[in-house]
Amino acid sequence: MASLGSHANVWETCLQRMDRRGYSLETKYPDDEDDEGLSLWFAEKDGFTFVADDPIQLLGLVTVYEDVQPKEDQPYWWREKTDWNKPTLGEQLLDQAIAVEEARVAEFAALRQSDPRAWEAEVRAAVEEVWVGALKERFWVHAFYDVASILRIPRKELRQILEDPLLADLRG
Length: 172
What we know:
By secondary structure, the chain is mainly alpha-helical. It is built from 6 helices and 3 strands. A 3-stranded antiparallel beta sheet has the order 1-2-3, with helices on one face. α4 runs antiparallel to α5 (143-151). The chain starts with 10 loop residues before the first helix and ends in an 11-residue tail after the last helix.
């Protein structure tokens, strides 16, 4: 599980961090006519203005500014320290994540074939861990996602796994 995730309960921490760093902060509450109902968050410092959908994104933009340290607000100043002559890091990370996920799915399928009881025990342990926590916390919304995360498989794969006859009682 992540140590910290993008959630509204982190917003105040992000806002206070930017405030301590000397940014002027502001938000624009959504207009009643706004179909999306989204507010915008602004930070300003030294003639640079940043806007984002939430304070977490805003802190990310401010961090880019602090890393690049531009002298003036020129177009595309944020690209100054970005190396565009090599494959993008985003593409590399996505390719790596896909490879890791495919290997885990294959590994888990192989376990089902070689040791069905161990495979079943692993699935049941993940379901039990999440279910007990969900009952205790009364927080069922992410339970399915959490089981997949514990097993390190995609939710699509978990849906198929839960159709296995060995796990019929979990569907009831």
